[in-house]
Amino acid sequence: MSRVFSMIQPSGRLGIGHYLGAIRHWEVLQAQEHDCLFAIANLHAITVPQATAELKQHSLDLVAFYLACGIDPEQTTIFMQSDVKHHAELAWILSCITSLGELNRMTQFKDKSQNTKRERIGAGLLFYPALMAADILLYQTNLVPVGSDQKQHIEMTRDLAIRFNQTFGETFVVPEPYIADTGSRIMALGDPMKKMSKSDQDSNNYIALEDSGRLIQKKIMRAVTDSLNSFCYNPEQQKGLANLIDLYAACSHEDVESIVARYSGGGYGQFKKDLAQMVSGRVEEIYANYERYRRDTAYLKEVLAQGAINANGIADQTLAVVHERVGLLL
Ligand code: AQP
């Protein structure tokens, strides 16, 4: 049985990208009876400014969405990152064996800091990958199911685990990324050059799991394609269409070739209509479950309390070994 760990930031409204890139794989791994831990990454969320009340709301929303997507607290540990203090402590220890050069090379850091003056960029944003490495290594994780944007961070986590083990003695399991072939990078509907993100200022760029069927239909019908009017999968020249085909493939579990074979020869309109219907069907199903769970705040807090007990139990053991290895104990 492998240990599986992943998390999502409560930094906005959850979108179809998070579901297809991450959560639906969590459910599959849970069904395969792996030992799964899925967290709410609230310490990561504050690497960029968050409004206090919204952060609290989004954190509970996310728990309800995990449950709505089929993550079962009877089988899986669901917890709030800040409820396990060891994340911050291990992040500090790992940051001491991380170079500034490595941190500066991270593309997520470059993307998120590019429009901010250097003196105003929070150090937490730069140290994000050290915290992420701590999150994963604390639980002796074997597999990390994520979207492809997180690949570089997982590689750095592996490097840090290997470096720590070589310096201080065998301590951490070196984790493997689990990145699916389809749906691991859903792009913005209005700008297929950038990833679909929950913090996008333009809500037409993403499909939120809270969007109504009508709104989803409107967004997909307006999604950027091209004027070639040739239905084929060509991510180089027809990025917008390729993104919608990826979305279709991930939602339907169908391969790209058979989707292209079905729609080739026709325009994009019917394809977009069918895609909208499929996406809205899945989103509405999740949202109906979500509403049911979200009404019961006491239950959500109970799930988190139990999750914190389980997670702290594992984290205690790892951190005790880390202290011993580094020499933080007398
Ligand atoms: N567009 C996407 N396609 C596929 N997978 C995605 N993920 C995020 N966006 C897509 C995956 O979802 C998991 C959780 O992501 P996160 O919220 O912790 O961080 P993020 O990747 O930075 O997501 P956002 O929406 O872009 O957040 P903001 O806007 O707050 O920065 C990860 O596994 C991620 O790969």
TrEMBL record:
InterPro entries in UniProt: aa-tRNA-synth_Ic, Rossmann-like_a/b/a_fold, Trp-tRNA-ligase, Trp-tRNA-ligase_bac-type, Trp-tRNA_synthetase
One Gene Ontology molecular-function label: tryptophan-tRNA ligase activity
Keyword Metal-binding among record annotations: no
CDD domains listed in its UniProt record: TrpRS_core
Main location: cytoplasm
Top EC group: ligase
Short sequence motif named 'KMSKS' region, residue ranges: 195-199
One Pfam family named in its UniProt record: tRNA-synt_1b
EC number, UniProt record: 6.1.1.2
Catalytic reaction list: tRNA(Trp) + L-tryptophan + ATP = L-tryptophyl-tRNA(Trp) + AMP + diphosphate + H(+)
Alphabetical list of SUPFAM superfamilies matching this protein: Nucleotidylyl transferase (SSF52374)
Keyword annotations: Aminoacyl-tRNA synthetase, ATP-binding, Cytoplasm, Ligase, Nucleotide-binding, Protein biosynthesis
Record's subcellular location: Cytoplasm
Domain of life: Bacteria
Residues reported to bind L-tryptophan: 135
Binding site for ATP: 9-11, 17-18, 147-149, 186, 195-199
Family label: Belongs to the class-I aminoacyl-tRNA synthetase family.
Function: Catalyzes the attachment of tryptophan to tRNA(Trp).
Record's subunit section: Homodimer.
Protein's name according to its UniProt entry: Tryptophan--tRNA ligase
Gene that this polypeptide is encoded by: trpS
